[in-house]
Design goal:
It contains five helices and eight strands, in the order αβαβαββαβαβββ. By secondary structure, it is α/β, with parallel strands linked by helices. It has one domain (5-198): Vaccinia Virus protein VP39 (Rossmann fold). Strands 1, 2, 3, 4, 5, 6, 7 and 8 form an eight-stranded mixed beta sheet that branches. α4 links the parallel β4 and β5 (117-129). The mean pLDDT is 95.
């Protein structure tokens, strides 16, 4: 099985997690899809858990688990109300997921991720930049509008998302301009990426 090379920013997050003395227990917020990044952590010895709000991509992730005999523990859940006790995880991330929500819901999800992280726990999250060219409106019958009441990607100015991380020490912050082939079409994306440690 190949590594999840499409999720390259998570490799640096994994490197920092591996250097931490905390228990190898990680939560993926937005864990759906047919090639879940949680598999990368599982193959490195982590106890993995994932929540996903959208049923179709949740089914894809669960099918992946069955096909590869990989118990990633992915189930239906909402990162605005994470169904785990406080300080349950050493590590948590939301990769290409939080940007589908409205900014008030992003603030709520960020508080929830902080709640479930242990002190000194690490968080990875990426936000869509105001410089991203995608201004499309979400499909009216899609999960973003139906489940999240969100009409477009939430975009953030360069330092705007820092406000979500008041309980954290920002260890790494990057603005990434990405151009890649995705499902046979070219995708341009501009992200603000954070790795932060809970105080």
């Amino acid at each position: 099985m190949q590594d999840v090379t499409w999720a390259t920013p998570l490799y640096e997050f994994l490197r920092q997690c591996n250097a931490s003395p905390l228990e190898k227990r990680v939560l993926d917020c937005g864990a759906g899809g047919d090639d879940p990044p949680l598999s990368l952590f599982y193959r490195h010895g982590y106890r993995t858990y994932g929540i996903e709000i959208a049923e179709p991509v949740l089914r894809d992730a669960q099918a992946f688990c069955r096909e590869h005999d990989m118990p990633l523990n992915v189930f239906r859940g909402d990162m605005r109300h994470i169904p785990f006790a406080s300080e349950s995880f050493s590590f948590a991330y939301a990769y290409n997921a939080i940007m589908f929500m409205t900014k008030p819901d992003i603030a709520l999800a960020m508080r929830e991720m902080a709640r479930v992280l242990r002190p000194e726990g690490l968080l990875y999250v990426n936000f869509m930049s105001v410089d991203d060219p995608d201004d499309s409106v979400f499909c009216p019958d899609g999960p973003a509008q139906n489940l999240l009441q969100s009409e477009q990607f939430a975009k953030h100015a360069d330092d705007e998302a820092d406000a979500y991380l008041v309980d954290f020490e920002i260890r790494r912050k990057d603005k990434r301009y990405i151009g890649r082939l995705s499902r046979a079409s070219w995708l341009d994306q501009v992200d603000l990426e954070y790795i932060a440690r809970k105080r």
